[in-house]
Design brief:
The complex is a heterodimer of chains A (292) and B (412). Chain A is built from 11 helices and 8 strands. With 292 residues, chain A is of the alpha/beta class. In chain A, helix 9 links the parallel strand 5 and strand 6. Chain B is of the alpha/beta class and 412 residues long. Chain B folds into 2 domains: 199 residues, Rossmann fold (3-Layer(aba) Sandwich), CATH 3.40.50.970; 111 residues, Rossmann fold. Chain B has a 7-stranded mixed β-sheet, sandwiched between helices. Chain B has a 5-stranded mixed β-sheet with strand order 11-13-12-15-16, with helices on both faces. In chain B, strands 1-10 form a two-stranded parallel ribbon. In chain B, helix 3 packs parallel to helix 4. The radius of gyration of chain B is 22 Å and the shape is globular. Classes of the chains: A alpha/beta (292), B alpha/beta (412). At the A-B interface, strand 1, strand 2, helix 5 and helix 7 of A face helix 5 of B.
Chain lengths: 292, 412
């Protein structure tokens, strides 16, 4: 039914823009596109008002490629830079109130499951470190403890980028930012550890340096969330403006942080692993608590 | 999730015991009837129940999909009763949320999923969730919110006081104020239907005064529990639901709406105007289903008492005493709907009034302000702010009589 919504009424075909026709004819709907195919298909997001060189934008683009079922996916976000791009995707996007993402997603997912017991509807939360670890902390943690079946993706730029560079709970200790003029006095919050405490069955820490891996992790996270329970991806998506990273050096910065303190980590529960193997016997090779 | 009829155990707080097979099958046997049959034609039987039980019985017949709860006095009993309904299969989905911001947000999510959605709160809970509640109308979300009014200010108190409604009535939510257990039953059922009308598509809050109504018994005429309202039809509403089965609403799609420029100001302004226009469009359904925004007793009287909620019950009794004991006919206007506000109705009814008395269960006098604003330039009556009680104090009829007859001396 949703694919029918996307299709153009024959009488209107000649009036629809090239971009829209491309989306219908060469979009990722109904087929799993690969990162290596970028440039050969119409992406779910192309135009956006994000800053030049923004790592978060790249991450969001890759996320959209990883979605296993974009025509049945609903995105949920909150205030922050990410929503400027998310609202431009050709996927329904709920831009709610401050820090409400995981509560909205809980009600949304349960309502959709009730209305469409036969058709999986994927709910994906994408919000910043401030939105999820600070103001949305309670709804995030409770959604995990309640085992709500959706994916939470934290776009962790370690700062309140959209409001102009204030320190957040996910900022590194010592960083000098607005509202922390003497340098942040406390450690970066351990959201991965909290996810483990809440028994989240799939937890990943990553950066944008390996595009194929981003799409693959997102795909796994969404599939596991559909069947097993909440999944969490914490992605370093630097703010090149507030951290004064020269635009051409954004990926270099991600690489050096990856080597220093933001290495790829993937935790998968036995149940989630068995589930992935059951649907994709050859591909599933997730490792337990790998760090590199 | 969605365990529906298969659940075995009731939440312990709703009364211990295992749900019997006969109870779950009763839920599945419920027959869908038209709203008109439910409201006007179905035979009713009298029960002597509390306000919380009246709410429960309304929800049993309301075909609710998703109910999300969080305890707060004096509301807790209602939502735990709804939990019992879920266990019996009358409500399809139910859980206890983390706190009110979480609950009000989750209910927004389930409403956007196209599910008929319900929650309830009281005083501080409403204030905590207010950021979210104030955003529902702009999202054009049909939701029913029950409010059991309670003190919101310090020192902390669980007592009845409806100051919280001063905030709620300015959010674009439709707001009804129930006088008693019967109203609470009827308004709650009717709220679902009004909320989901295509030209309305707005949340409806049904408020009652805590304890006075929620914890006290009254007579309620109810149709059989074998019937229920028709389900929500989310494809016939003002804004499409976010279920990926129809083109979604792009409330936040276009960058101009989120930026500071003239297009964004105009988009936002027209959206707000449309929300309030939709509030006004609910009038015809309030007239049709609830007998109008107001109830008027003794319309020709020179002195009129105007009230909402349980202040109406006390005023009704004061009006009876004035006539029977003092031989004076006093008018009474009960305001059923605070939003939309019965401006025209009040102007018509108060044309010849000389004195208007506005008793309230709060310190700030929000109803007095609304009435004074509505009647300014349309009535020569002196509008008297009060009597007011708050913080849990009850409103003796003598206090109202003292305002009606300032030259007499009443003891209270």
């Amino acid at each position: 039914m949703s694919m029918d919504n996307l299709k153009i009424s024959p009488a209107l075909e000649k009036y629809m823009t090239k971009e829209y026709r491309d989306l219908v004819e060469r979009g990722p709907y109904g087929k799993q596109k690969k990162v290596s195919e970028m440039g050969t298909f119409k992406e779910i997001i192309e135009e956006h008002p994000m800053c030049a060189g923004c790592a978060m934008t790249l991450f969001i683009r890759l996320t959209m490629i990883g979605l296993p079922n974009p025509e049945h996916t609903i995105l949920v976000g909150t205030a922050g830079c990410g929503r400027l791009a998310l609202s431009q995707t050709s996927i329904p996007f709920i831009y709610g109130n401050y820090g409400d993402t995981n509560a909205v997603a809980s009600g949304l997912k349960r309502g959709l499951e009730m209305r469409f017991p036969e058709q999986p509807k994927d709910v994906v939360v994408m919000a910043g470190d401030g939105g999820l670890a600070d103001i949305g902390f309670s709804t995030v943690l409770h959604s995990w403890f309640r085992k709500e079946k959706f994916t939470t993706i934290m776009l962790d730029n370690e700062v309140y980028g959209n409001t102009g560079g204030q320190e957040s709970g996910m900022t590194e200790r010592g960083a000098i930012l607005k509202m922390a003029p003497k340098g942040k006095k406390y450690e970066k919050m351990d959201m991965l550890g909290l996810a483990k405490t809440a028994n989240v069955p799939y937890i990943v820490r990553m950066t944008v340096t390996n595009p194929t891996r981003v799409a693959s992790v997102v795909r796994k996270a969404v599939l596991i969330a559909r069947e097993i329970g909440p999944t969490f991806i914490q992605a370093y998506t630097s703010c090149n403006i507030e951290y004064a990273i020269p635009t051409p050096k954004v990926i270099d910065d991600a690489k050096s942080l990856e080597a220093e303190r933001y290495g790829f980590q993937e935790f998968i529960s036995d149940e989630a692993k068995a589930f992935l193997e059951s649907i994709e016997p050859k591909k599933a090779k997730a490792t337990k608590s790998t760090e590199d | 999730m969605s365990e529906g009829a298969g659940v075995e155990v009731k939440p312990s707080s709703a009364g211990a015991g295992v749900v019997k097979d006969s109870e779950t099958s009763e839920a599945t046997r419920q027959k869908v009837v038209t709203p008109e049959y439910m409201f006007f034609e179905a035979p009713r039987e009298r029960a002597f129940i509390t306000g919380s039980e009246a709410a429960k019985e309304a929800i049993r017949r309301a075909n609710v999909d998703v109910a999300i709860s969080y305890p707060i006095t004096p509301q807790s009993e209602t939502m735990q009763q709804v939990g019992a309904l879920w266990a019996e299969g009358y409500v399809k989905e139910y859980y206890r949320g983390e706190e009110e911001i979480g609950v009000m947000s989750a209910i927004a999510g389930s409403s956007r999923a196209g599910a008929r959605s319900l929650t309830a709160t009281a005083g501080p809970g409403l204030m905590r969730g207010m950021e979210v509640v104030a955003s529902w109308p702009g999202g054009r979300m049909p939701i029913v919110l029950l409010i059991m009014c309670r003190v919101i200010n310090a020192p902390l108190s669980i007592q009845p006081d409806n100051a919280e409604l001063a905030y709620l009535i300015n959010t674009g939510n439709i707001v009804f104020h129930a006088e008693n257990q019967q109203d609470f039953f009827d308004y709650t059922l009717k709220a679902f239907i009004i909320s989901e009308r295509p030209e309305v598509t707005l949340p409806v809050a049904v408020a009652v005064d805590g304890f006075f109504v929620t914890h006290a018994r009254g007579y309620v005429m109810m149709p059989s529990k074998d019937i229920k309202l028709p389900p929500r039809d989310p494809y016939h509403e003002a804004v499409p639901v976010m279920d990926n089965e129809n083109p979604p609403a792009r409330l936040s799609r276009d960058a101009p709406i989120q930026k500071s420029n003239f297009i964004s100001y105009h988009v936002h302004a027209s959206w707000q105007q449309e929300v309030w226009a939709a509030v006004e469009r609910s009038r015809k359904y309030i007239d049709m289903y609830m007998g109008g925004l107001v109830e008027i007793v003794n319309p020709d009287a020179e002195t009129i008492v105007i009230a909402s909620g349980s202040a109406v019950s006390q005023s009704r009794e004061a009006v009876r005493q004035a006539e029977e004991d003092l031989g004076e006919r006093i008018g009474l206007i009960k305001i059923r709907s605070l939003r939309p506000f019965p401006t025209k109705e009040l102007r018509d009814a108060c044309k010849n009034a000389k004195r208007i008395i506005v008793p309230e269960f709060n310190c700030v006098g929000w109803l007095y302000r609304d009435i004074a604003a509505a009647l300014y330039g349309h009535s020569k009556a002196e509008i008297i702010p009060g009597p007011r009680v708050f913080g849990g104090i009850s409103l003796p009829t003598e206090m109202i009589l003292q305002y009606i007859f300032p030259d007499k001396k009443f003891v209270f």
